[in-house]
Specification:
Strand content: under 5%
Distance between the termini: 11 Å
Helix content: over 70%
Low-confidence stretches: 153-162
Order of helices and strands: HHHHHHHHHHHHHH
């Protein structure tokens, strides 16, 4: 594996580790911050953090920004305004097991979109690797209980009863896949820092009227030290650091390879839950981790041959 590939995979792992922590924070403050307010302040902090380091480059790229404004607008709507906000909304109206199951479908949509829009081949070996990775995620979510796993699959599929949050989460997964494909199509002469600052700023702009409406109907975010720390985490690490790492990983190794690293989020979430919430790590976590990692290795070895 060359240095470019190694760097791409490393950046993708960094992003997934940070996003795993983001889920821990989001669960802890689910009842304290309304979804649009959480999204608004997340991106407000992200823009304030990123701007001092990227404004000069963005000014230099102003002609490119105007030229690709439509592309930047669509990317901002998908990756910033819609995707994360839908996750926060879904968390208020559906079970965590539903969200986790549906979230794992995002890399599948990325692979399918790559096939549809770029004609990338999905070999049998690669499909097997994806299936192994998915089986590891499902095993982790099911807690190792075959009875529970069968109950989830059969009852849900036969009854076809979805909470509105399930639909929000499914839409978020599809939107994230679309955003990842758009990052792959980023104009090569548009710097990644400029792309990130523009999408964050536009996404925040589009969120502003929705946050104003939420404040008018309900209430604004009530700040206290713990909420401030949570917002700093999602605003600086989960937004600036993770998105820059994720976008650069896509540029280095492509959307499909990057998407497969996304399957490691449940593993990192389990480790974070053990370290910060005191939750036990069982044999289920070990076997799930092995299945997910093996699936990723098989798929990526197939692509590199």
């Amino acid at each position: 594996m060359n240095n470019k590939m190694s760097m791409g995979y490393s950046l993708a792992v960094v992003a997934t580790v940070i996003w795993a922590g983001n889920f821990i924070v989001a669960r802890a403050f689910n009842q304290d911050i309304l979804p649009v307010g959480l999204a608004f302040w997340r991106w407000a902090i992200a823009v304030a953090t990123l701007a001092p380091f990227t404004v000069r480059a963005a000014v230099s790229d102003w002609k490119l920004i105007k030229k690709h404004l439509r592309y930047l607008t669509v990317s901002a709507l998908l990756g910033v305004t819609a995707f994360n906000t839908l996750i926060y909304i879904a968390g208020h109206t559906t079970l965590a097991v539903n969200m986790a199951l549906i979230a794992t479908s995002s890399p599948v949509f990325i692979v399918l979109m790559s096939r549809l829009f770029y004609g990338e081949r999905i070999s049998l070996t690669r499909a097997a690797g994806i299936a192994i990775a998915i089986s590891g995620v499902v095993l982790l979510i099911a807690g190792g209980s075959l009875e529970r796993l069968l109950s989830i699959s059969l009852e849900r599929l036969l009854s076809i009863s979805f909470a509105i949050g399930d639909l929000y989460m499914l839409l978020a997964s599809i939107i994230f896949a679309g955003y990842t494909m758009l990052v792959k199509r980023k104009p090569p002469n548009l710097r990644m820092t400029t792309f990130t600052l523009c999408t964050f700023s536009l996404g925040l702009l589009f969120l502003s009227p929705f946050y104003a409406l939420e404040c008018w109907i309900y209430h604004p975010v009530a700040f206290n030290p713990s909420i401030a720390l949570a917002l700093l985490y999602v605003g600086v690490l989960s937004s600036v650091v993770a998105f820059l790492a994720w976008n650069q990983a896509i540029a280095l190794i492509g959307p499909n390879r990057t998407a497969l690293i996304y399957y490691l989020i449940p593993v990192f979430s389990g480790i974070a839950a053990r370290l910060f919430l005191g939750e036990a790590i069982s044999w289920v976590h070990i076997f799930s981790t092995l299945a997910i990692v093996c699936g990723i290795i098989i798929t990526n070895r197939t692509e590199s041959q």
